[in-house]
Structure to design on (959 residues):
């Protein structure tokens, strides 16, 4: 083990202080779990500081407190197992403590440590020196390896969401994709859209044009070494699904785009009507504010309307947004320029809140000879979108390797250019453009020259004749920062009568006058993570803050700004749907390798003004949703003590609060997440279950080593020949202990018979979600419940 | 990093150590576990450093009267502890073996002998508290001590030989 700082704590409070604010510090009670975690290096962070709890004065005790007993958190499991007070109050607790590992471990391990122990899944615990620890979903990685791997001891009731999921983490909007997919699997389009609208009010747009980094994070697209290696697997076609959902939302305005029921009387103005401004407008209006959107252009939509080619995003969708937003009561003032028609300071005076999302529309000056003879690619797109003009261009050269460059190249080609060549610094695998856009360009005969930068434009008689390019040998430095290196001797010339520059855009903040004091960083508006600027009541987002970025990123900015503005008025909007209960997926569909694809128009039929693809049917969407693994954690709670405490309706006392065992153990996937930084469990209060017979039953293959494969904590009281009261809690079968409330209610007040026991046992497992290899646990659970009931 | 003194009593003898950083000669790093200290610093190599996760029991020593796996205990946490290892069982003056050790020899209660010190220490702790355990109690007490050579049957006989004395 590597060394660490060691502190002997005198009290729980002192120990809490010693770890608070330092994420690389841990507390150690018996150490029987933590020491193995540290030795095997299964976690990325190795503690710098270990705070010893064993030195806490009076931290280990078992006290009779009338109708309950109090157990200090650092009481050894041996003492709990041996205690007569415990046996009298709740025999099952003693039995559970006695069932933990071996006597040698119980002599060291504590009750507090037991209930806070780390995950026991073999993927989670896979040691570093066994070829590398696995960064599974539970540790912040993307994937739960048990979904497709060996899951014989994993949950039979479904998984629980971890803090990060591949798709949602990849998504700049942060959409909870797994949860809406779960609704789609149940063919519930509305339920799914109700989730999406909390994150993104324009799924019809993002489904069409977002470069979908969510799909890069999808675990389907990166098959783990658990199934036929080399056979490949499509990621879930999230964008195709989301597009259909977005269309559904656009078609159901009464549900998704209704005007608010109440007005707050607050006035908010949004400057810029691109995706950031529109998103903020949506959530602010939903909250009931008086919302005005100002834009310098003729119509709202920003880049959506003016820069994205129609074959990718037909104008009708942007028009639809305008219509829906106006329908909600959002006011648009187009053709109004801040700094010319109205001053920034005036906006602040006239409105309660201001949000700037003015985008990145300015042409950067690269400084090569003949630059003035080249055109700005973005302006070209704007012109095409506005007038569909067909200026004569025979041989076009496009400079740039991003999605805008692809749009420019494809648009030029579809306008009738004989040849279109695209040159960019990056090699094919480094290009910032999305795979689909590159594919589209290649399909349409565009030549891509990788690894070339601009040397100068060739000009003759005031007209551009081509460009001299120089070889780019390296684009990024060691830290993957943009830092192109050229070989100035490797030159090549391309003939062209039109050169379109799509190598970057800049933010233009000249509309803000000097006397308007707004913090700016690298030419962009500076905000904090709440999208608040240096000025009170002024927020900003989109490209004006981030520099040229994605529509999805702008949507997030808009939403975050709206959320924080709303928060200032004590309004919770947008409300994110929160997934309750256990997650599940469709076991059968793990083997369907191919995802649904957008319905594409054949290359020969593609046009400049007609969308290239069509939305798939609802049925296809439902089908595709079945391929989603709903990545969650499927490990089980390993503690023997926690199911007992849930059964006993015990209380957990921490340094900051007292909570019921049920809340403590079953709210979060990780009970430790119920604790704030520096908060520690210090006492467990166990009720005296007078008149009850309690018991703990545990199944494992090798006693003294194994954790429970299934455990059952029970308590019952007879009422004559009837079952007066009954409590049943399962451990080891789900990520958290499960109380079988339904079975309890079903059995209470009845005379126990074999038939009743059989029926109740079936009920206990009716909500099971069986993984490939753990069917046996379901059968065994049923047997456990039945046997126990028969024993009453 | 702070250097803290700790005092251990091992087999009746007091030792004071400095604990703290791992780059100061003679100072026990905070991360050092008891079995390493016993073996490497006190040359008490009876306790074996085997599984390193508290599962096999080969490193068992008696600490404050209870058998514990010394691979799962930080030395720095043992300040003030009274520790007995297999080396501390014999009579220090006469060299006479503990009756339990003698019983293991009498009954050939080992094969390779690697796990034997741990088994003897666990059994000794049991007999100290419960001089006449039943076979079941012996089995339960030893459930955390593993033997790959299947010496278990003879171990029962050896422990019972002592347990039955004076009965």
């Amino acid at each position: 083990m590597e060394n660490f700082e060691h502190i002997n704590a005198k009290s729980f409070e002192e120990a809490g202080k010693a770890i608070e604010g330092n994420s690389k510090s841990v507390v150690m009670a018996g150490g029987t779990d933590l020491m193995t975690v540290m030795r095997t290096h299964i976690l990325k962070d190795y503690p710098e500081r270990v705070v010893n709890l064993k030195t806490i004065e009076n931290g280990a005790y078992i006290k009779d407190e009338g109708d309950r007993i109090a157990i200090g958190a650092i009481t050894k499991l041996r003492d709990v197992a041996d205690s007569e007070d415990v046996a009298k109050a709740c025999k099952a607790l003693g039995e559970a403590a006695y069932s933990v590992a071996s006597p040698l471990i119980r002599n060291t391990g504590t009750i507090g440590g037991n209930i806070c122990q780390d995950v026991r899944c073999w993927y989670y615990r896979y040691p570093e020196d066994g070829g590398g620890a696995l960064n599974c979903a539970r540790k912040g990685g993307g994937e739960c390896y048990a979904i497709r791997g060996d899951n014989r001891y994993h949950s039979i009731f479904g998984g629980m969401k971890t803090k990060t999921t591949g798709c949602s983490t990849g998504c700049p909007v942060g959409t909870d994709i797994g949860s809406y997919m779960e609704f789609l699997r149940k063919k519930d389009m509305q339920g799914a859209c109700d989730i999406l609208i909390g994150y993104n009010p324009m799924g019809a747009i993002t489904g069409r044009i977002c470069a979908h980094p969510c799909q890069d994070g999808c675990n389907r697209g990166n098959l783990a070494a658990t199934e036929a290696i080399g056979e490949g697997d499509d990621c879930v076609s999230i964008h195709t699904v989301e597009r259909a959902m977005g269309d559904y939302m656009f078609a159901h305005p009464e549900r998704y785009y209704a005007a608010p029921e109440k007005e707050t009387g607050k006035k908010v103005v949004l400057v810029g009507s691109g995706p950031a401004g529109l998103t903020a407008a949506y959530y602010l209006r939903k909250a009931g504010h008086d919302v005005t959107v100002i834009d310098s252009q003729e119509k709202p939509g920003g880049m959506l309307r003016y820069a994205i080619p129609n074959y990718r995003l037909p104008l009708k969708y942007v028009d639809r947004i305008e219509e829906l937003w106006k329908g909600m009561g959002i006011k648009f003032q187009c053709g109004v320029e801040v700094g010319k028609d109205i001053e920034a300071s005036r906006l602040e005076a006239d409105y309660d809140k201001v949000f700037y999302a003015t985008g990145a529309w300015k042409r950067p000056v690269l400084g090569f000879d003949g630059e003035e003879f080249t055109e700005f690619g973005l302006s070209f797109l704007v012109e095409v979108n506005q007038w569909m003009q067909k200026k004569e261009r025979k041989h076009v050269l496009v400079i740039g390797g991003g999605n805008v460059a692809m749009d420019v190249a494809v648009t030029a080609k579809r306008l009738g250019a004989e040849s279109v060549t695209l040159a960019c610094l990056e090699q094919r695998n480094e290009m910032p453009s999305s795979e689909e856009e590159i594919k589209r360009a290649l399909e349409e005969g565009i030549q891509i020259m990788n690894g070339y930068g601009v040397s100068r434009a060739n000009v003759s008689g005031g007209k551009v004749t081509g460009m001299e390019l120089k070889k780019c040998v390296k684009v990024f430095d060691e830290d993957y920062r943009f830092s192109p290196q050229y070989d100035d001797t490797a030159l090549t010339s391309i003939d062209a009568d039109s050169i379109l520059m799509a190598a970057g855009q800049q933010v233009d903040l000249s509309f803000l006058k000097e006397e308007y004091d707004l913090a700016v960083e690298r030419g962009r508006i500076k905000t904090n993570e709440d999208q608040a600027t240096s000025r009170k009541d002024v927020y900003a987002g989109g490209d004006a803050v981030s520099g040229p970025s994605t529509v999805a990123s702008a949507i997030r900015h808009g939403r975050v700004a709206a959320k924080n503005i709303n928060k200032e008025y004590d309004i919770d909007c947008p409300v994110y749907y929160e997934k309750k209960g256990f997650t599940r997926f469709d076991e059968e569909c793990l083997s369907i390798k191919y995802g649904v694809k957008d319905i594409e128009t054949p290359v020969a039929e593609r046009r400049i003004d007609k969308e290239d693809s069509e939305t798939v049917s609802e049925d296809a969407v439902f089908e595709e949703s079945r391929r989603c693994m709903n990545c969650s954690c499927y490990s089980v709670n390993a503690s023997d003590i926690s199911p007992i405490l849930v059964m006993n309706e015990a209380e957990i006392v921490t340094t900051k609060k007292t909570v019921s065992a049920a809340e403590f153990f079953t709210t979060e996937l990780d009970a430790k997440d119920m604790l704030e930084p520096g908060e520690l469990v210090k006492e467990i209060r166990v009720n005296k279950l007078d008149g009850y017979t309690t018991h703990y039953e545990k199944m494992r293959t090798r006693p003294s080593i194994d954790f429970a494969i299934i455990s059952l904590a029970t308590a019952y009281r007879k009422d004559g020949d009837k079952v007066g009261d009954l409590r049943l809690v399962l451990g080891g079968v789900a990520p958290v202990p499960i109380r079988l409330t339904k079975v309890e209610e079903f059995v209470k007040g009845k005379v126990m018979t074999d038939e009743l026991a059989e029926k109740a046992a079936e009920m206990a497992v009716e909500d099971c979600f069986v993984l490939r290899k753990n069917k046996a646990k379901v059968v065994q659970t049923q047997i456990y419940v039945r046997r126990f009931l028969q024993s009453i | 990093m702070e250097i803290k003194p700790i005092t251990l009593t091992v087999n009746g003898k007091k030792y004071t150590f400095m604990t703290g950083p791992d780059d100061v000669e003679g100072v026990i790093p905070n991360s050092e576990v008891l079995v390493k200290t016993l073996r490497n610093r006190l040359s008490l190599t009876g306790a074996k450093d085997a599984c390193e996760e508290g599962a096999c029991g080969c490193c068992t020593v008696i600490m404050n009267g209870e058998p514990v796996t010394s691979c799962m205990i930080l030395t720095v946490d043992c300040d003030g502890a009274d520790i007995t290892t297999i080396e501390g069982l014999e009579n220090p003056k006469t060299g006479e073996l503990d009756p339990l050790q003698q019983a293991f020899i009498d009954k050939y209660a080992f094969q390779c002998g690697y796990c034997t010190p741990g088994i003897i220490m666990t059994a000794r702790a049991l007999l100290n508290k419960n001089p006449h355990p039943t076979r079941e109690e012996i089995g339960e007490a030893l459930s955390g001590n593993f033997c790959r050579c299947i010496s278990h049957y003879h171990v029962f006989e050896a422990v019972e030989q002592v347990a039955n004395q004076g009965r």
In short: The first strand of chain B starts at residue 4 and ends at 10.
